[in-house]
Every structure is written in C-alpha cells, then in structure tokens.
Design a protein that fits this description.
With 359 residues, the chain is an all-alpha fold. The chain contains 15 helices and no strands. The longest helix has 29 residues.
Length: 359
C-alpha cells in the first residue's frame, strides 16, 4: 500500500514537471525565438546558394533533378516516421491495451516537431509524455515506454552502423581522411554509452556509486544547485532505468521486434541522403558507402545546441559529402536533405498539433 502511494506521488510530481516543461516549450517568446532562428537559417542557406551558385545555375540544377529519386526519398521519410511510431506504440500497447496506433502516430509526430525546434532535441519526450497523459496514460508509464524505445533504438543504430563501417571501411577511411580519428572516437563514445546503459540496467549500484560523488563535487563547485534533490532525482531515474531492463528481459519477443523495426528505421533515415545523391544524377558511390558517413554526420548533429542542429548540420553535410557530389549540386543537395530531415518533420508535427475532438 505504501509502495502504491509512493508511486502515485512520484507520478503526480512527474506530471507537474512535464506540465511546467510544456508551458516553457509553448511559451510565445520561446516559440517565436526558436522559429525565427529556424527561418533565419533557411533564409541564410538560400541567400548563400544564390550568391555562390547563381540563380541561372540553380534553375539548371532543378531542371536536371530526377524527381523519381525525390519521391523515393519521401517514401524513406514515411518509413522512418512509421517505424518511429511503431516503436513508441509497441511498449505503450503492452501497458495500455486500448492504445490506438493512430494516437501513437500523433504522439510520435508531435515529438518530431519539438525535437526539431528545441536545442539538443530536448522537447520531444516531455511533449510526448504530456500528450499521452491527456489520453489517460500515466507520465511514469509513458516515460518508461520511451526509455525502452530509446535503449533499443540506440543499440540498433550503433550495431547497424558498425556492421556497415566494417564492410566499407576502406572507402570510409579514404573519404573521412583527417576526420577519421574523430569518427572513430564518436563511435567509441556511443559504444561506451551503450555499455553504461546496460550496466545501469543490470548493476545500478555501480552507476549510483560513480554518479553521486560527481554530483556532490559539481555542487561544491556551485555548478549544480540543490544537490540532494538532484541526487534523489538521478537515483530515481537510474532505478527507473533498471526497471526497464527487467521489463526487457521478460519481454524478449517485444525487444527483438522493436530492434528489427529500429534497424529498418535507421536504414530508412540513412537512405534519404542516398536518394538526394541520386536525385542530382550522381553515380559511383553505393548505398552502403553513404551509410557510415551519414551516421557520423548524425553523431556530430547531436552535439550542436541550436534547434534542429541548425548550421552545424548544413556545414557538416558540406564538409563530408562535397567531394562525392557533382560540381554545383552540393548546396541544392543540402537544401533538399534538410527539407526531408528538418522542415518536413516540423510541418507534419505542427499539423498533428491541430486540436481534434475527443470522447
């Protein structure tokens, strides 16, 4: 009885935190600032293209585009969104049998919107939990489902990328040249992160033993305020993380199904770059050769604090892919790629925010 009461209190506290965060995200000033920054980045890219390539060359490039590959890129994006929705739907459906896939799509797309308009993609999960809470799902259950999804997706992402890197290592090494050590370091960091997640799930005491002194040290350095409260929340998160591993161990079929879907999702996302490559009538580079470079670009983007990793994503794409795209097509390719991976998710996510009648 006491444990149930504690769970209810924790859930109420989580709901209040999520609602507070939701108010911050939907605050007019914050929303206007983020959307203005997105518009400025888009405008800056467009002006840069006109200045460097010239309007005549841009028109010629657009006339030469193979729009069958553009359509194929759109199909890849839809597959990516569908897989994202499925991997959110499966664990929630396990807890709430009345969960509809249509609602999971809506929640997933709202996450796409807020991931792209907030720094470090910090707004997606809180808004998804808030949206699920409006349909009667406990915040703690929603966050648990999203934690399972995150763990499986990260493992699938790293495993599928490493397999391709091994297969196409010679090409990857040649293309990356001066950036190879950064790429290898990035992949090592991802592998370490997965190992830490697994240790946190199996032996949470080890992670608590390591993290608590670090938080106390940061408190003494006045970097973290309310040290005891921070430790309490951190330990609670680690406990929750451990609970997800217990669930995953008892639901092996569900985990395998989600892992396969996550691999398909990763391949679909990476395919977008290849479709853009072929849309501008480029040849000579295979689909498998694109994947590890795109994976490295995705890794770079996670460390860029602007909404949607703006500027860093465009700059990274230019540096990594400029040598394999035909002359005069790289800037238009960046625009097309960003429409797929940044602007369309924002537009689609905003569409799903339109209020609908509920029973």
């Amino acid at each position: 009885m006491q444990e149930e009461f504690k769970d209810n209190m924790d859930n109420q506290e989580s709901e209040k935190e999520i609602q507070t965060f939701e108010k911050k995200l939907t605050n007019k000033k914050s929303a206007i600032l983020n959307l203005s920054l997105i518009f400025i980045i888009f405008l800056g890219l467009f002006i840069y293209m006109i200045k460097v390539d010239g309007i005549e060359n841009i028109i010629n490039v657009l006339n030469s585009v193979d729009y069958r590959w553009v359509l194929a890129g759109l199909v890849c994006l839809l597959i990516h969104w569908t897989c994202e929705s499925l991997n959110l739907h499966i664990p929630i459906k396990k807890i709430y049998h009345d969960q509809k896939f249509v609602n999971s799509i809506k929640v997933s797309m709202i996450g796409q919107l807020f991931n792209n308009i907030t720094p470090f993609s910090s707004g997606g999960q809180p808004m998804q939990a808030y949206e699920l809470n409006k349909t009667g799902k406990r915040v703690s259950d929603s966050l648990s489902a999203m934690a399972i999804k995150f763990i499986i997706t990260q493992i699938a992402l790293v495993v599928s990328t490493l397999v391709v890197v091994v297969i196409e290592f010679d090409f990857f090494k040649t293309l990356m040249q001066d950036y190879l050590w950064i790429a290898m370091l990035g992949f090592i960091v991802n592998i370490i992160a997965i190992i830490v997640m697994i240790v946190a799930g199996i032996k949470k005491e080890i992670i608590i033993y390591i993290t608590n002194p670090i938080v106390k040290l940061l408190g003494k350095m006045h970097i973290i305020k309310e040290v005891e409260r921070t430790i309490e929340k951190l330990n609670k998160s680690i406990d929750n993380f451990g609970n997800q591993f217990v669930t995953m161990k008892s639901e092996k079929t569900m985990v395998i199904k989600m892992f396969i879907i996550a691999v398909i999702q990763s391949i679909a996302y990476y395919s977008i770059t290849y479709m853009v490559y072929r849309a501008f009538r480029n040849h000579g580079i295979s689909f498998l050769q694109i994947i590890p470079t795109q994976a490295f670009l995705l890794l770079i983007m996670t460390f860029i604090p602007t909404p949607g990793s703006g500027l860093g994503a465009e700059g990274g794409f230019y540096l990594l892919f400029n040598s394999i795209f035909q002359n005069g097509t790289i800037n238009m390719s960046i625009l097309f790629w960003r429409i797929y991976t940044f602007y369309l998710p924002i537009i689609a996510g905003a569409f799903f925010l339109i209020p609908t009648k509920r029973k």
